[in-house]
Design a protein that fits this description.
Blueprint lengths: L1 H15 L4 H63 L6 H47 L15 H12 L7 H8 L3
Helix pairs in contact: 1-4, 2-3, 3-4
Length: 181
């Protein structure tokens, strides 16, 4: 319930500009300048580190496993030709390669989703920064205008929806669980 209410109030604040007394109090006394900067830094760092781990570790690991599996399939095929026997079913090796390729595809899709969420969070933080400063200082002039960019409203609503959705397993995690180990 709290998340639904906060989501609705943030959406109302960022898209319409109306602020309830409770939200204004939360912005001024709980968030404030210091906590806002810390929140922004940690969130953006989280996105960047996630992309970095996926890019520098998981992608090369999947690629290496695919290459090693292909080499193994070649060695088995050579042994079959040499001895005129079936050593191992090559279909099992092909299945392993397909699974590894699926994992690689999921990782690449995850990187795209994280990059998209990082972009949305940057937009959110620019607008949210304006609203925090407007709550703290009546004379503050906002830097971001919804009227100047037609996609900001949609991006803000999408970001808030992503942040306050039910905390169940993510789609990506569901897809990884489906992939055979």
């Amino acid at each position: 319930f709290v998340f639904q209410r906060l989501s609705a109030e943030l959406t109302s604040l960022l898209l319409v500009g109306s602020v309830s007394e409770q939200l204004e109090d939360w912005l001024c006394n709980t968030i404030g300048e210091k906590n806002f900067k810390k929140w922004k830094k940690l969130e953006l760092e989280g996105y960047q580190k996630s992309i970095q781990v996926l890019t520098l570790s998981f992608i090369p690991a999947c690629e290496r496993l695919i290459i090693l599996t292909e080499r193994f399939r070649g060695i088995l095929k050579a042994l079959q030709l040499r001895e005129d026997q079936k050593v191992v079913k090559l279909a099992e090796i092909a299945d392993l390669i397909r699974i590894l390729q699926s994992c690689l595809k999921l990782i690449l899709e995850a990187i795209q989703r994280i990059s998209s969420q990082e972009r949305l969070s940057q937009i959110f933080f620019e607008c949210f920064n304006d609203k925090v400063h407007e709550s703290l200082d009546e004379d503050y002039k906002p830097k971001v205008r919804l009227e100047s960019n037609s996609t900001i409203g949609h991006d803000l609503a999408l970001y808030i929806k992503l942040q306050f959705k039910e905390k169940s397993q993510s789609k990506l995690l569901d897809e990884f669980i489906k992939v055979e180990t």
